[in-house]
Write a structure and sequence with these properties.
Layout lengths: L10 E8 L5 E8 L5 E7 L6 E3 L5 E3 L2 H11 L7 H17 L4 E3 H12 L4 H11 L5 H14 L1
Helix pairs in contact: 1-2, 1-4, 2-3, 3-4, 4-5
Length: about 150
């Protein structure tokens, strides 16, 4: 590992710890030339995921978009941000674990709805209204009835 201070290639690992989410390892290193310490993170290399949008366009997967959509759905509702981060990580890992390198926004939306449903029914309906593009009150009523039937 190249030292960020002097550029030397030789360093030793002084300390290693798993991250809280268990997805990376934090390593404290010491440069053998200048004796300065720096931190590195080791993560599993993942293949890029392409998201296919409703209009057919494609873009790189961005976990922040999932998180932001849930934050909007839970606006002014009681929710632990750790739960939303956990859900986002679960969805990302689930997608990574499939052999497909492309996933539709419809599939991602269904995965989000499935996971937020037990957390908060109002947030679920809010998310569904955007995801399913409700156009009128009857769309809301239909989704609420579906929700109540599944309960």
């Amino acid at each position: 590992m190249k030292c960020p201070f002097c550029g030397d290639q030789d360093s030793k690992v002084v300390d290693s710890r798993h991250s809280e989410d268990g997805l990376s390892i934090r390593r404290r290193r010491e440069c053998l030339k200048c004796q300065r310490r720096f931190t590195t993170y080791e993560i599993v290399e993942s293949l890029p995921i392409i998201v296919i949008k409703r209009d057919g366009s494609r873009q790189s997967f961005d976990r922040n978009k999932i998180m932001n959509s849930m934050v909007r759905a839970f606006d002014k509702r009681q929710v632990d941000m750790a739960d939303l981060d956990r859900i986002t990580t679960e969805i990302e890992q689930s997608i990574q674990n499939t052999l497909d390198r492309e996933v539709s926004t419809d599939k991602i939306g269904e995965m989000v709805m499935e996971r937020i449903k037990p957390l908060d029914e109002v947030a679920y309906i809010r998310f569904a209204s955007v995801y399913r593009r409700f156009q009128d009150v009857s769309s809301f009523v239909h989704e609420i009835n579906r929700y109540l039937e599944e309960k």
